[in-house]
Amino acid sequence: MKTVREQVAKVLAADACSGCGVCTTLDRGLVMELDDAGYVRPAPTGPLDETDGAAKSFSRVCPGRQVAAQRPARSLRHPLLGSYFAVWEAWAVDPEIRHRASSGGALTAIQGWLLESGLATQVSTAAPDTARPVRTVPVRIMSKEEALASAGSRYAPVAVGQLATSDPAHAITAKPCEVAAVRAMTGTGGDAPILLSFFCAGTPSQHATEQLVRDLGGPEPDGITDLWYRGRGWPGRFTAVSAGGEVSTDYDSSWGRALGPTTQWRCKICPDGVGESADIAAADSWETDDRGYPTFGEREGRSALIARTERGLAIIRAAQAAGVIGLRPLDPEQLAGAQPLQTSRRQYLAARLWGARLGGRAVPRYRGFRLFRLSAEHPRLALRTLRGTLRRLRAAQHRRHE
Q1: What residue spans define the domains of the chain?
Q2: In 3D, which of 205, 186, 208 has the Cα closest to residue 195?
Q3: What pLDDT is recorded for position 181?
């Protein structure tokens, strides 16, 4: 059996690492660091220090090796949104949370309520680095006030998975790949931590954030005193603050033109941007135009909230009963229609994976998502996706050899 470190090297060589950080809990001699491309990656900082059974666990835990779709007993299943017990449109009842958070604040409100109610003693999540706000770091929060301070999306590399624990008194709010890794490590029983996630379009390079600030006329990274990507409205504006004032741009420009195009390769072949392994997953409940595309005009924030497990269902209902969140039923088809990136990515992922294999890329193993069936429903578009993936990979290989 190869060591964790040897297996990590193989994942890195295939460019299949998502930067989740869970491998650092299996080998404590690894740390997560920014690489030259601006993504967080495991790096050795000392001799091997593996936990018992770590090498054996790695292949089923690492999202760069495999991800399995979750199908809890008695749950319903949507082919593009995954398993669920109920779906709602949701919002934080507290107007401050609703305004500050990225999309209605439901997830932030639930985090605070878990801590206040004692259902969780701490929540591991992501937040701005207090010493260097242009960066994003994993944190443990222990109060409603700390939950509010960490509210808002962070479109940047961060490895919340390095704070993974099997303690059921803890909660973890993290990207779908991180949550999938923790689920694979801790199981599905009541003795696992509470897992919260959100719809994720991918992890951009840290360099993209810093370049966007420069392009807007802002300072170099060390001159930034505060930075948020969204929130303080819905969807809110990308904003960087410094001693010289602030610079900002709208969500469509920041994500669509600057950050989104720099997402790492593993995110482009992700089978689960919708948080299937979580107990609760949240998303933007966008309104759509006549063509069915989301509109990003400012308005009061609304979350879509999915109970993926019976545990998640109980938490959401209890939070509503406590007056923490408001709910109204949401048709899963309406949510799927408002999330075209997520649905199209899953619809044609099998074709993209085959294109990657033909281009010489090793790809992770994905089980239970029925990806081939989804791509086969639209064979012409699937073939176009396969050819496009293969063409881009070959062009990238050609550039590297020039």
Answers
A1: 76-341, 348-402
A2: 186
A3: 97
